[in-house]
């Protein structure tokens, strides 16, 4: 069954590949060039196929005809999410390639390489390089293609993650420099650098806090993101960063002119336990930036649950927001209101006729969880539903509430 599996991997048909593997196909099958199917999936940037093959016990370290492991190939191609998957599934980082480079050395090499020049050199072609944005759960990146060659710009994020795995504490300034080199704050490098520093706790706190006065909004964003993640990641019973974060973020968010920087400031306040954050979060539900409004609403569950009139009114107001994601978040927030608060229930009922399906379903679910059946017709129209549906877990919550 090697050939059918190879064909399925090359065509990206994970369902067929899964069926073949369940029927006994070898997950370590290789093509005519000695390239294992796992490497073929890496070359196609096919994360679902990778998960299918690894789930069938494909060996993550089986080398191709040139002595490269799937991890080597993923690093070379700049595939941050696939690199992470392979490491999480047990790929060894110390295996060397034909040039004697382990995963870290290979990532360092590619981080320092001019990718466009490398595409021209390898392809021997002229003409413009095709560029397109690629999004994934791990963050954005850019994909560069020339002829049959394709590479992604995840090398800085890969290197940063590997340095941590190798026990290397890269300096604050170097990680800041890597992030600032990428103008898209949703690029994987921004998450990887800020999360890496946040995991150091108090060691990075002062340096991050000092960035709040920088004229460059991207530096301020970097600092705010580290501070909010530091508090979020901390699992200490006494929450040592919670109060200091609110002390910093309250005056900062009140004067911050850039909506991009306001986003992590709002997220940090939404995650904080300090009650001083309730009033500014209520005000931020009216911010010009929709992501700020959405995040602010996510932090109002506790005051709404206590029956706070201002917080409840803000959530009711946002059910008429022009952005459907904000309206959906308003439904979630209103669900926290005490049962006797009729304004919350009435607003959820109104949302059952929202023009956006996600908002209608959210309102119906929240009503069902409040033992109000007026959204049941919407929920019934979704059944039967499988695990691939975006509504699967919402309906599961309703089922558990009613029958669990």
From TrEMBL:
Keywords from the named record: ANK repeat, Repeat
Record bears the keyword Membrane: no
Annotated ANK repeat ranges: 1-32, 66-98
Xref: SMART domains: ANK
Protein name in the entry: Ankyrin repeat domain-containing protein
Species, as recorded: Kitasatospora misakiensis
